[in-house]
Structure prediction request, 241 residues.
Amino acid sequence: MSNLQRLDKVLSNLEFGSRKEIRLLMKQERVKVNDTTVKDPGIQVDPETSIIKIDDREIMYKKYIYIMMNKPDGVISATFDKRHKTVVNLLPGEFKRFDVFPAGRLDIDTEGLILLTNDGQLAHEILSPKKHIPKTYFARVRGLVDSSDIEKFSGGITLDDGYRTFPAQLEVLNSSEVSEVKLTIYEGKFHQVKRMFQVVEKEVIYLKRISMGGLILDNSLALGECRELTKAEVREIKVKC
Ligand code: URA
Prediction:
């Protein structure tokens, strides 16, 4: 299916300047489409198939973008907030021209993997309650977590509102006054991990998402940093969703 659009609109959407500035670039014969210099800003191009160059450098057009971020504490997983910084505010300039939004939510004090995209279909699949996409968290929990908790979690936990979670896999990494655990859950209920531990009378004091639907948080990303998913990662998450 062709997706014809005015050249000046395509270039201004890609933030190569205002329509006026782009017209000037064309007048200066700096813009080529399929190796032909073009001066008509209204020429129709298909940004996905036409080869557009400015000063002989090819413009990379992408419809969808998929970004993984290591969300820090104190930042909201939303596009806009009056009081707090959002994950979208943390994006570097190169990603700002894409209208991305977070596919899923983490509490303000939860760190770790969050996916930002402008692919509404994929976000919808990830968030669909019917899909049961696995999400794994690392948590520090006040209280001794032991095999009885593993057993309870594996049968599903009835939350304070009566909802019974899917069976969840709890792995104890270190059991002491402050235990360290990994927990995989299959829904995204409000404060789910914290509420599951409340039921077994323990308190989550640190929470970080480390994977979601086969996508694993890149350990080289510092808190607040992000990067585009590789093609293999995009394939993986699309297969899992
Ligand atoms: N469970 C929680 O309690 N908080 C999160 O941010 C994610 C899962």
